[in-house]
Amino acid sequence: MALAIALGARGLGRVWPNPAVGCVIVTGGRILGRGWTQDGGRPHAEAVALAQAGPAARGASAYVSLEPCSHHGKTPPCAEALAAAGIARVVTALEDPDPRVSGRGHALLRAAGIEVASGVLAAEAAAVQAGFLSRIATGRPFVTLKLATSFDGRIATAAGESRWITGPEARHLVHALRARYDAVLVGGGTLRADDPLLTVRGMGARRQPVRVVASAGLNLPLGRLAGSVREGPVWLLHGEAPARARAAWQAAGARLLPVAQQGARLDPAAMLQALGQEGLTRVFCEGGGQLAASLLAAGLVDEVIGFTAGLALGAGGRPSLGPLPAGALADAPRFALAETRNVGGDVLHRWRKV
What we know:
Layout: H1 2-9, E1 22-27, E2 30-36, H2 45-53, E3 61-64, H3 78-84, E4 89-92, H4 104-111, E5 115-117, H5 122-128, H6 130-138, E6 142-150, E7 154-156, H7 168-178, E8 183-187, H8 188-194, E9 210-214, E10 234-238, H9 243-252, E11 255-258, E12 261-262, E13 265-266, H10 268-277, E14 282-285, H11 289-297, E15 303-309, E16 318-319, E17 335-343, E18 346-353
């Protein structure tokens, strides 16, 4: 099962809106076939593993990191495929919460005379499936907030200079992280200040994440992002934006998603619900400070990944977060440390929502 979960993780960022599933087919301690959900969500992990195993699958055991699907979609149900191949035993980590499945896959297997066991390494599988599970349970994707700061929490000098606070190893790792997410999200201020591409580079990526910009009024420059739509999708979350701005971005090939506003700013919960409705399961937020603060204040950040550099910029430097609502210390967003390690000359720290 540990192998099935690890194989499934290979599909992160490339299979949405599907879950990133892994499957291993075994008999007598020998692996006959293994697979993971392929780019775009097809074929499913079970189909790949069964194709590798061939006729030898009859009488074997299949370890699958999520309950096999039981509904007819773009492909036949995986539960039926396992039964047709003569699999004798299926071991899963999680029941699929998707209403189209939700126990029906296990029931179909049992009705076919197949022994079924579930709940094996469930916590480990749930960590990989966090985005899919979040979208099914809450309607929104799993959100990771990335911060790259000086050790006094600044993201730029007072004049706005930010290239580069962290070293090349940390920046390289950020590209690897982007590749494991369905989308990269920034606010309009970041686009205006940095004109970023937000693509995965230096990784041989076959599939680019969706690049999402949140800007209520779409007062954005038609810079590198607009000129690179062919390299990867560009979506704009907007509010009451002028028709002229909307038309310009549509002409550039961007997709526009209208979102409700809270005053002059976009409603953070509505933004994530809109992305969830479009099928996104994992979003990597790279700022800026106002967007990050709004997501934190709304309790919508599931994980924080920080890169801390060994330099100080002082009180005049730009803070990594915009203002948060004033209140008691006990009310502040709180996270538990999950990982810390050196990345070149910088320190990576990963925090999970308590």
